[in-house]
């Protein structure tokens, strides 16, 4: 083992010192070696990638598709993504100039924030929210502006947005997640239209994270880009919809003038995405087959959601019924410890069951836990059996 020169520890940027590791992955890794551990922590679909998609990647390798593409990604992929967005959501982005291929949605988010933020710029983040939003903002010199929407069914309202903007003049961008991680909440067309009416009065960029768009259960997924196209960048990809998390292919879609500037950063960060992964994603975005692939997965997730909502409600947990993604964000019952971090670690210690503490998702998450149901029914049934044991043995007088 190489010993670090202690003087070297001072070389890191001030921005990095403000950043905390992901509470989701830190906790999940910390408990991984616990014997008999059952983890419902990571948003990792348990499904196999569909065979026709895997075959496309294999074919690309066999054809020696091993040379540089362009930083925006293969035109074939961008055309497939264009058709996917147009057919599924009536979003008409031109593949040549308005779609950018990224190394997963995460790289897309980071590149986008890097392209737009100056020191001191604020990024409005309705919380509870995916923790990487805030940390990416800090890494790029910005300041997260948390807006706790836990008392509003986990949705940002126009009145709340207008009030926040009246007192914060440095807001450069807003990150809107639909469907939401961690809550599974979704916005209706009317709700998005009302938010867009407020934002049209500003020059604020809307970063619309729609990575779970194919996993909306009731109603049709609505995109902010429908109502505010000139100010919105859509973030999407194949990781969640097609169980392709390891392929690392996402997309950004928005006005050509904005995408061109974002691509400057993107090209320097990653040069080009992986060709075999892009070939697989091109096949995944094929609309006819894509719908078949995702519908089967979505039906399974809905069954799992209904099972967990019933079981958790019977145990005294309260939640907004998730309408998308594959998470339940549940309020810990009053007769159990309200320290969600302590709850999560105690649940591991007593029952070898891992869920994520809600406080890691920002203001409004305290006293909640996030449960991922991207796991097979037998796993979820065993998890609920362990949670029942925990609740029965640890209830306190209130």
Give the overall form. Answer: globular
Query: What is the number of independent domains?
Result: 2
Q: Can you tell me the CATH superfamily of the largest domain?
A: Type I PLP-dependent aspartate aminotransferase-like (Major domain)
CATH architecture classification name of the largest domain: 3-Layer(aba) Sandwich
If you consult CATH, what is the topology of the largest domain? Aspartate Aminotransferase, domain 2
CATH class of the largest domain: Alpha Beta
The share of residues in helices is 40-55%
Number of helices: 13
Lateral strand order in the biggest sheet: 2-8-7-6-5-3-4
Protein name: Aminotransferase
Keywords: Aminotransferase, Pyridoxal phosphate, Transferase
EC number: 2.6.1.-
Cofactor: pyridoxal 5'-phosphate
Which keywords apply here?
single chain, alpha/beta, globular, 2 domains, four-stranded antiparallel beta sheet, 398 residues, seven-stranded mixed beta sheet, Aspartate Aminotransferase, domain 1, Aspartate Aminotransferase, domain 2
Q: Can you give a write-up of this model?
A:
It holds the Pfam family Aminotran_1_2. This is Aminotransferase. Keywords: Aminotransferase, Pyridoxal phosphate, Transferase. It comes from Leuconostoc holzapfelii. Its EC number is 2.6.1.-. The protein has 398 residues and is of the alpha/beta class. It has two domains: 144 residues, Aspartate Aminotransferase, domain 1 (Alpha-Beta Complex); 222 residues, Type I PLP-dependent aspartate aminotransferase-like (Major domain) (Aspartate Aminotransferase, domain 2). Strands 2-8-7-6-5-3-4 form a seven-stranded mixed beta sheet, sandwiched between helices. It has a four-stranded antiparallel beta sheet with strand order 9-10-13-12. α6 links the parallel β3 and β4. α4 runs parallel beside α10 and α5 crosses α9. The chain starts with 13 loop residues before the first helix and ends with a helix. The mean pLDDT is 96.
